[in-house]
Amino acid sequence: MKIGAPKEILPGEARVAMTPASAGMLQKLGYQCVIEAGAGLASGFTDAAYAEAGVEVVADAEALWAAAEIVAKVRPPTEEEAARLREGQLLISFFYPASNEALMETARAQGASVIAMDMVPRISRAQKMDALSSMANIAGYRAVIEAGNEFGRFFTGQVTAAGKVPPAKVLVVGAGVAGLAAIGTSTSLGAITYAFDVRPEVAEQIESMGAEFVFLEFEESELPDGSATGGYAPPSSPEFQAKQLEKFREIAPDMDIVITTALIPNRPAPVLWTKDMVEAMKPGSVIVDLAAERGGNCELTVKDEKVVTDNGVTILGYTDLNSRMATQSSTLYATNIRHMMTDLTPEKDGTVVHNMEDDVIRGATIVHAGEITYPPPPPKVA
Ligand code: NAD
After folding, report:
1. Backbone phi, psi, residue 287, to 5°
2. What residue stretches are annotated with the Alanine dehydrogenase/pyridine nucleotide transhydrogenase NAD(H)-binding domain (predicted)?
C-alpha cells in the first residue's frame, strides 16, 4: 500500500507528517511512500532528500490524495481535503473530533476511516504514539525560549566585573507535559523557578526538576480529585480558585516571567492571571500563554499576538510554537505516526490491519468502515 503526506495548507503551519527518516522506517514496514512536492520545505526537508530516501514526489495535492491509500497529516483536514477522501482510504491526523463533527460526517459519508492522533489513549503502551505529549514538550521548551527573547536580562544570576546580575524568577502555571518541559528549560537556564498545579501529586516531579512548588494552604480533602478524570485536572471549586488567585496576586510583583499552560479537558482555559496581576508586574516582565488557543489563562492574552501593556509587560499568545521549531516537531510527529503504522501493520507486509480489538487503535479511531466510532469506550488497560 502507499502512504503519503500532503503539504499542510493552514497558513503558518510549517510541520509535515512524514520526514525522509520516517519514510525509511515506513518502507521497512512494506509501504511505498509518496509526498507532495514542497511539503517538507518549511521543516527543512527538501524534495531531493525525500527522493533520496526512496519517496515518490508528486506535483500537487490532487496527485497525492489520488496516489495514497493512507494519508498522514498534521492539522485536521479542511472541508476541501475531507471531500477528497474516498472509500477504503485511511486518514491519520490530529482531528479534535469533539469540535469537528461535520468533518467526521464528511469522512464517514466518503467511506473512509480516520485515526485521530489527539485521541491516542494516554496509557504507557501508547506513549510512542502520543503526539499530544511530543508536541506539548516542544511547546513548553519553546515558550521559555520565546520569553528569553523578549526578556532584557539573563536567566541565571551572575557576578561580573561590570556588576552583579540577579537571577530571573520564573513561574510556570500548570505542570502537565508542556509545563514540565518549561520548568526543565527554565531551571537549566539558571532561573529561580516556581510552579503551580491543581494536582498536588506533581509537586514531587516539580521539585525533582529543581523548581519550587507553590503550595496553597488547603486541607487534603478540599483538593480537586483527578482520579475520576484519568489524571487530568477537574474544574476547581470556587474556594480553591479564590485561594489560587490570592496566592498569584501576592507573588505577581516578584515574577519576571510567567508561563501559563493550564487546561481542563473540553472546557475553555481557566483565567488564572488577571488584569490586576499583570498591572502589578514589573516593566520588562514577560507572560507566555500556552493556553491562548483555548481562550488563554491570562485575561489580557490576544491569540497569536504579542501585546505590550502600558506598564511594559509583554504578553505572548502565540499558538504556532511547534511550527517555530518545525524540524524538531515534524521529526517527533512523523515518528509518532510511524509507530502508529507499526501497530497497524503486524505482518510488516505493507498492509493495514485495522484491529478494532486493540485498545490503542480502537481508542484513536473516530471513523471506521462507514461508521462514526467516536467517542470510544474507556480503555481496558492503564
Ligand atoms: P493538559 O494540557 O490537559 O493540562 C495542563 C496542566 O494544567 C495539567 O497538569 C493540569 O493539572 C493543569 N491545570 C488545570 N487547571 C489548572 C489550574 N486552575 N491551575 C493550575 N494548573 C491547572 O495536561 P497534559 O499535559 O496533556 O497532561 C495531563 C495528564 O495526562 C497528567 O496526569 C499526565 O500525567 C497525563 N499524561 C499521561 C501520559 C501517559 O501515560 N502516556 C502521557 C501524557 C500525559
Report:
1. -120, 130
2. 148-317
Please confirm whether the linkage preceding 270 is cis (ω < 30° from 0).
no
Predicted ipTM? 0.91
DSSP 43: G
What predicted TM-score, i.e. pTM, was given to this entire model? Answer: 0.95
- Is the CB of residue 321 below 6 angstroms from any atom belonging to ligand 1? no
User: pLDDT (tens digit, 9 = 90+) per residue, 246-292?
Assistant: 999 999 999 999 999 999 888 899 999 999 999 999 999 999 999 99
CA distance linking residue 102 with residue 95, whole number of Å: 11
**171 CA to middle of ligand 1, Å?**
17
CA 177 to ligand 1 centroid distance, Å = 7
CB-facing half-sphere around the CA of 143: CA atoms within 13 A: 36
Q: Report the C-alpha gap between 191 and 176 in whole angstroms.
A: 20
| One-letter amino acid of 255 | M
* Pairing of β 158-160 and β 163-165: antiparallel
C-alpha cell at position 106: 464528511
d(Cα 364, Cα 373) in Å, to the nearest integer? 9
